[in-house]
Amino acid sequence: MTTTEFLQLLFSGIVTLSTVVYSVLTWKLVSETRRMREFQITPDINVYFERSEADASFIHIIFKNSGQGYAKNVKFEIVKNFEHYDNEIWDLKNTGIMQKELESFYSNQSVKYYFTDLSKNNKQKIADYLEIGATFQDINNKKYKKRIKLSLLEFSGTGIMTPPDNYIGRIAHELKELKILLKEIFEKK
Q1: Which tens digits make up the pLDDT trace of 58-70?
Q2: Residues 6 or more apart in contact with residue 81 via CB below 8 angstroms
Q3: In 70-91, which positions are buried (b, 16+ CB within 10 angstroms) versus exposed (e)?
Q4: Given 1.10.1240, 2.60.40, 3.40.50, 1.10.287, which CATH number is that of 44-158?
Q5: What is the pLDDT of residues 100-125, one digit of tens each?
Q6: pTM metric for this prediction
């Protein structure tokens, strides 16, 4: 084998190896791009409890699409209902979201319902739980199923500070105090 033939063989090997490495890197990039695209179209339906801003004993239930993708044919069902509603009108089974399938549920869209007041029958409510099933599809008709178990136990031992620790709450608190003082002044006259 001559030097020229050897150099040609060496360069051919280097080009072949470079092509293989380039192909592997391209395959990884395409796979990553595919996963990113799938993430961008995937809905993520969540259900959770949230305290009311105005009164910390009021609890709301939030249904939200936290994913980046649009959800369609969203159906919720109560697997295990909460048994300590303050009144039957607050029963979750009576809400529109439980009675009718949602044709569309956009990214970051949420629906909020009053759920209960923790200042009444607190121990019984905290011992109980709610379980909800959710079925939905993404824009490619891929089906998803989820079961969400919610408990009010996470709110046990928490409360609100007086005066509140945020600016908006502090303003509202001070306005309430001013209102009381003004009422006292006008009643003395």
Answers
A1: 899 999 999 999 9
A2: 91, 92, 93, 130
A3: bbbebebeeeeebeebeeeebb
A4: 2.60.40
A5: 999 999 999 999 999 998 888 778 88
A6: 0.74
